[in-house]
Write a structure and sequence with these properties.
The protein has 175 residues and is of the alpha+beta class. The protein contains 8 helices and 7 strands. The strands form 2 sheets. It has a 4-stranded mixed sheet with strand order 6-5-4-7. A 3-stranded antiparallel sheet has the order 1-3-2. Helix 3 (28-35) packs across helix 4 (39-51).
C-alpha cells in the first residue's frame, strides 16, 4: 500500500532503513551492496532526502555516513507510518502488551536493518513466558498484518550474548 504513495523503490528502501530505527547509519557503498541497486540511484535519493533535511550526514574518513534526522518535524509521523506499513503497531498492540511476563521485545532480522520483508522477526525477553499464549497471539496478529511472524524467546541472562551477534531494534519494554 505504501508503494502507491512512495513510488520510488529506492526512496522507500532508504526511508525504511533509516526511519524504522533512528540509530541506523550507513554509507553509499554499503547501501549499494545491501539494496543491490546502482550507486547513482541511491546517491540521488540520499541527496534528495538530505536536502529535505530528512537525513543528516557526517564524514568518517572518506565515507559519508547518513542517518535519519530525528529532530525533523515529520520524523515521528514518518516513523509511525512505516511502523504501520510493516505491521509493528499491530504486533505491539496485539502481542507485546498482552504477554504477561514479557520484559522487553526487539525487532530482529531484515526489518531491524530497514530491509523490506514479508516476515516480522521478534526477540521476546522474559524469564517465564507462556509459549502457548504467545502462539495464540501471534496467530491472531499474523492475520491482521498479513505477514508471517517468527519469534525467539530468551531469558534475561541469554539476551546480552544474543544481542552482541544480531542486529536488533528495541521496540518495547515493560513500563
Amino acid at each position: 500500500m505504501i508503494e502507491s504513495l512512495i513510488t520510488n523503490k529506492t526512496r522507500l528502501k532508504l526511508l525504511l532503513k533509516f526511519f524504522l530505527n533512528k540509530e541506523t547509519t550507513s554509507y553509499l557503498r554499503n547501501l549499494e551492496n545491501e539494496f543491490g541497486e546502482s550507486s547513482n540511484a541511491i546517491r540521488l535519493e540520499l541527496n534528495r532526502l538530505e536536502k529535505a533535511d530528512l537525513l543528516v550526514s557526517n564524514f568518517n574518513g572518506n565515507r559519508k555516513y547518513f542517518r535519519a534526522n530525528d529532530n525533523h518535524p515529520l520524523y515521528g509521523e514518518i516513523n509511525s507510518i512505516l511502523q504501520k506499513t510493516v505491521g509493528l503497531d499491530t504486533v505491539i498492540e496485539k502481542i507485546l502488551k498482552n504477554v504477561g511476563d514479557l520484559n522487553e521485545a526487539y525487532l530482529i532480522g531484515d526489518l531491524a536493518i530497514g530491509k523490506e520483508s514479508g516476515i516480522i522477526d521478534l526477540l521476546l525477553v522474559g524469564d517465564d513466558i507462556d509459549t502457548r499464549f504467545v502462539v495464540a497471539l501471534v496467530t491472531k496478529a499474523e492475520k491482521l498484518v498479513n505477514k508471517k511472524i517468527r519469534y525467539l524467546i530468551l531469558s534475561e541472562n541469554e539476551k546480552a550474548d544474543y544481542l552482541q551477534k544480531q542486529n536488533a531494534l528495541h521496540i518495547w519494554s515493560r513500563e
